[in-house]
Amino acid sequence: MTDSSGGSERHGRTGVLAVGAGAFAVFCCAGLPLVASLVGGLTLAGVLGVSAGVLIAAAAVATAVVALRTRRRRSAASSTARTGAKL
User: Fold this and answer.
1) How many C-beta atoms surround the C-beta of residue 87 within 10 A?
2) What's the pTM?
């Protein structure tokens, strides 16, 4: 009779261990890949965001340079037209 009471006590512990092992397996097999994909997605978004920012800044600088050159050419052309000089 002593064996049956000890066995039921061990069975209760085994059930708790099984539930714990199941929760750990779900966390490892589902939770960790989910966290890894979220971190990877944030990293990818950061890289793409920085790249897009650099491209936008380069386009803005190029537009400003073209606008300044155009303005200088127009002002030079209008000043030479006023003075009558040829380029």
Assistant:
1) 5
2) 0.44
